Amino acid sequence: MMSTSLLLLSFLLAVTAAQGASGFRICAFNLHHFGASKASKNDVMITLARIISRCDVCLLQEVRDSKGTALPKLLETIKRYDKQNKYEALASERLGRTESYQEQYVFIYRSNTVKVTDQFQYPDNLPGDEDAFSREPFVVRFSAPRTSIKDFVLIPQHTTPTNTTKELDALYDVLQQVRKMWKNENVMLLGDFNADCGYLAKKNRKHVRLITDSSLHWLIPENTDTTVKLTTSCSYDRIVVHGERFYRAVVPSSAQPFNFQQEYRLTEEQALDVSDHYPVEVLLEVVSSRAFNGVISFTSSFAVFQCLSCIIYHLILL
Ligand SMILES: *[C@@H]1O[C@H](CO)[C@@H](O)[C@H](O)[C@H]1NC(C)=O
Questions:
Q1: Distance between Cα 129 and ligand 1 center (Å)
Q2: Which of 89, 260, 302, 306 is the most buried (most CB within 10 A)?
Q3: Active site residue: 158, 277, 281, 285, which one?
Q4: pTM score, whole prediction
């Protein structure tokens, strides 16, 4: 009896330790023309739900849901797929220079691990550099008590390929404004930056403050392939962290693309039906999970119970 309980206890401890080690996952995923057409394909929606439900916070890009039905359907699919967590979505307005081509940034997050505490649509009216972006960042501040950093800001960006150098440099101005506005140094910039191959020439990098400023850490290594097509290999999708404190709150070497084609054994064609990009992701250190605290209190009440029973036992014997 006793040894069974002990076994159970050590099993529980092992399980929660493993869960704790998995960290708090932040992802960025370019969904490549996500709208009614993709939403009508059941297998695509299930794969999207599998991918997105791995993340505590997932930034979606290229959401082109003109009828406004695809996103609610995706959220429903995710909720049905993962009933262990609660999910909510926060979407920007439709952004773009022309009426005919607009995209939304969408954050899907687990409301049981993270809360939205503020949001800010960048107005893109910096004197002398008005309208720098096609898709102005929709900046969101989060509170995640389980993480060691607790409170952080995400700045999303899907650059226009032909204007990559300019837009990446302008992101630096957004960063400064957000730091000042919210008095918060814990800022992450993420998304499909098109920061590679033909779109970001090596010789132009020295003009991009987001690259040259040493307070910024580019977490996805230079030669990483974030594209699905076998014939392309480019590090388009990136995660950049501002400040030493935030950098230290990241699980070392955890930033990587998630190769869902390999992971879910899809053909290239099946994977491309989902997106032409892999998501990129990073883990934040967690302090202690609620499950772990649960085991601690279980352990201590178990100990108290044992102690009581042995006292009673001795009292009876005496
Ligand atoms: C590139 O940026 C300039 C100015 O910031 C803008 O006028 C132009 O339309 C942009 N190009 C595209 C393809 O969006």
A1: 12
A2: 260
A3: 158
A4: 0.86
Q: Check if 242 is active-site.
A: no
Q: pLDDT band for 308, please (50, 70, 90 cuts).
A: low
Q: In the structure encoding, which two tokens stand for residue 176, read together? A: 């400064």
CA 299, CA 109: separation in Å to the nearest integer? 32
Distance of CA 62 to the CA centre of its chain: 16
Do 189 and 311 lie in one domain? The reply is no
pLDDT higher than 70, residue 10? no
For the Cβ of 160 lying below 6 angstroms from any atom of ligand 1, the answer is: yes
Instruction: Note down the domain range covering 15.
Output: 1-22+289-318
Q: What is the mean pLDDT of residues 285-312?
A: 57
How many whole angstroms separate alpha carbon 113 and alpha carbon 115? Answer: 7
Residues 186 and 272 in one domain: yes
Q: Say if ligand 1 is within 6 A of residue 162 CB.
A: yes
> What are φ and ψ of residue 268, in 5° steps?
-60, -40
Identify whether residues 101 and 83 lie together within a single domain: yes
- If one counts the domains in the chain, the total is 2
33, 88, 99, 103: which is the annotated catalytic residue? 103
Q: Which residue has the higher pLDDT, 15 or 253?
A: 253
Q: 192 and 127, same structural domain?
A: yes
Gyration radius (Cα) of the chain, Å:
23
pLDDT attached to residue 209: 98
What tens digit of pLDDT does each residue of 280-291 get?
999 999 996 555
CATH number of residue 183's parent domain: 3.60.10.10
pLDDT score recorded for residue 22: 79
Residue 103: active-site member: yes
Please compute the mean of the pLDDT values over residues 158-177 and round it to a whole number. 97
163 lines ligand 1 (CB under 6 A): yes
**Same domain, yes or no: 102 and 223:** yes
Report which protein residue has its CA nearest ligand 1's atom 5: 132
CB of residue 134 inside a 6 A radius of ligand 1: yes
- Report the DSSP beta bridge partners of residue 57: 26, 109
Reduced to 3 states, what is the DSSP secondary structure of residue 90? Answer: strand
75: Cα separation from own chain's centroid = 16
